[in-house]
Amino acid sequence: MTPTLSGPRGACMDDGSKNLGDDSGTGRLWGGRFSEDQAPLFESLNASIPYDHVLAPYDIKGSMVHVRMLARIGVLSEQERDQLLTGLQQVASEVAEGRFAWSLQDEDIHMAVERRLTELVGPLGGKVHTGRSRNDQVALDLQLYLREAVETHISGMLGLMEALLRQAKRHRRTIFPGYTHLQRAQPVLLAHHLLAHFFALERECLRFRAWKELSWMPLGAGALAGVNYPLDRQWVAEQLGFERVAPNAMDAVASRDTAFAYLAIAASCGLLLSRLAEEVVLWSSQEFGFVSLPERWTSGSSIMPQKRNPDGAELIRAKSAAFLARLQGLGALLNGLP
Fold it and tell me: What domains can be seen in the chain, in order of their start residue?
């Protein structure tokens, strides 16, 4: 799902369309009190759609559950519910198939989805935002995105752990040099060494699962002080797979500690993978000669034909630093925010 890109920082191309449901002339869903449209430079600076378009599936998923909940509490009729759900399913299909028309005028993913929904079902589309603010909506989108990512990470680590365990069982009696300061120190079993990586990865899986338990459902918090509708937040949480509802509205929308904690665990995983990759690089060198990498996992040299380079391990070692950089970047961004 990639929007049409053009201009600085890969900004989405502005197709000049006006959003429905707004008669102010600004073309904005929030434009009721505005008589002027945004300056193009400010529009480009202010728009997050070049980045948060990746949240589209999660935004739509949250909206579909929200619509069903609004019908449960009597805010929407069954007919309105069904129309909105059909429209949201159409939007989801367009996004998945790459047919969705992105525009800088949408500003963010929430307005993009609502704009298209309103085009499909008419003014009824505006009711999808009943009892919501973009503040609690983006908090939900981000949490859904990260929760899915966490499951992917855990699955990947479990696969690596299984591979380590297979090799450990295979080498239960293989004597191997244990190193300190990169000097041979004590003889160990190769299985002992491999299981050190296994248990380190297991801790990261447990950290990710603990992170998921502390990821609380924020929808219903509104802008910062709740909403004037008797929303069934617990039902929404259950439908979306959350263990509990965020108890404080201001904390739910103002805090980004869940994203920071996620990146902290990811950075810790990156360090483990970097250590493991460094060992592969060392062990496959002629000086160590402990392992021989298959040709399909190596590259060659254009001038030295005898070489078989462990590029895969080297790239893992290098790219793991990106996790640390992103963690520091987010920390700097969040520092001092009210």
Answer: 8-130 (1.10.275.10), 136-222+248-334 (1.20.200.10)
